[in-house]
Amino acid sequence: MVTIRKPKLYITRELFEEAVKRLDEVYDYEVWDRYEPPPYDYLLKKLPEYDAVVTLLSDRIDCNLIERISHRTRIISQYAVGYDNIDIECATRKGIYVTNTPGVLTEATADLTFALLLSVARRIVESDHFVRWGEWKRTKTGWHPHMMLGTEVHGKTIGIIGFGRIGREVAKRARGFNMKILYYDPVRAPEDLEKSLNAKYVDLDTLLSKSDFITIHVPLSKETRHMINEDKFKKMKRGAILINTARGGIIDTDALVKALEEGILAGAGLDVYEEEPLDPNHPLTRFKNVVLVPHIGSATRETRLAMANLVVDNLLAFARGEVPPTLVNREVTNIRKPGFS
Ligand code: NAP
Ligand code: GLV
Ligand code: GLV
């Protein structure tokens, strides 16, 4: 009997057993089982022995690493929709397939975007602290016309930067809140979609000057890094609220702090940061009108499981010699056929 060696797979963090076990018959896999990420130097030594790898957005997969693994590794399956941590151009050149997890996390991320928007507008976190730490009790005042006044959401204008999967899903939620919707994207959406969402296409500067709430949904790339900089903050309507659930690097953080100090922004809701985890002494933590959460856009049990299953679907399809369902770098199919043979 001939035993065929299964391809070796390295998974850089524990995902969900019920999804990962679907790989049992096809792959020999090993999992990094610590909570903190594997160090870059560890991956550099470890990964060259693997045919496939599952990565997280916090793993730096640069060209240096890709060149070290490309004699053997055929597929990188990212457990996230964003893939700015991977040098895609380099992977393609080296014939490595890269997949991601689009779609299954769209609604969860749009929900979190709205949770942040409402939290900032209605001072939810500040109010919780007010109750929890005894401030409310100390006022001896159960209800006061001026207590914790926030700002309306309904009837206000929301500006959506990046009108892809998540941006459009945010627009649906904004519609439910009777907001006016502006959007900016390199490509204008089809007219029937604009109509059904009641969304108006504008240029970026118009969006910034007209929106009460600005929310970012573009991928991080060379083009979008620091696309919201000091110059852009100057163009915003005074008193706007900025929400970012895309990537920290899209905003120049120093310029953001300055805009908060100067009152250009009335508040911000952030899920993502230029450096993660955020230092608790970071200037952003000084503002009461800023709500900070630790990159939890897709963090629901259902969504994280669906992401794990999509990672597995991609790996299984690839092993069967099929183009994986959510391949990022289509051009790689011209360089190498899918599969391990
Ligand atoms: P998507 O469907 O690809 O949408 C991104 C949109 O941004 C596309 O319409 C894209 O247009 C547009 N875009 C690209 N460059 C732009 C620019 N310079 N200015 C304006 N718009 C631009 O992606 P998605 O699934 O909505 O995800 C968006 C991003 O959210 C991901 O890349 C990821 O970084 C982030 N994310 C974060 C979390 C979280 O946990 N906080 C969860 C999920 C996703 P084209 O298609 O024409 O390029
Ligand atoms: C999360 O940030 C993702 O890109 O999936
Ligand atoms: C508030 O509780 C009100 O009744 O207006």
Structural account:
Strands 8-7-6-9-10-11-12 form a 7-stranded parallel beta sheet, with helices on both faces. The protein has a 5-stranded parallel beta sheet with strand order 2-1-3-4-5. It has 2 domains: 8-104 and 301-334, Rossmann fold, CATH 3.40.50; 106-292, Rossmann fold (3-Layer(aba) Sandwich), CATH 3.40.50.720. The mean pLDDT is 98. The protein is elongated. It has 341 residues and is α/β, with parallel strands linked by helices. The protein has helices spanning 17-20, 40-46, 63-69, 88-93, 106-121, 124-132, 135-139, 165-176, 191-197, 204-210, 230-235, 253-261, 301-319; strands at 8-11, 28-31, 52-55, 75-78, 97-99, 157-161, 180-184, 199-201, 213-216, 240-244, 265-270, 290-292. It is built from 13 helices and 12 strands. Bound molecules: NADP nicotinamide-adenine-dinucleotide phosphate and glyoxylic acid (GLV) (2 copies). NADP nicotinamide-adenine-dinucleotide phosphate is lined by residues 81-82, 102, 105-106, 109, 161-167, 184-187, 217-220, 223-224, 245-247, 271-272, 295, 297-298.
Task: Please give a quick description of this structure.
With 341 residues, the protein is of the alpha/beta class. The chain has helices spanning 17-20, 40-46, 63-69, 88-93, 106-121, 124-132, 135-139, 165-176, 191-197, 204-210, 230-235, 253-261, 301-319, and strands spanning 8-11, 28-31, 52-55, 75-78, 97-99, 157-161, 180-184, 199-201, 213-216, 240-244, 265-270, 290-292. 33% of the residues lie in helices and 15% in strands.
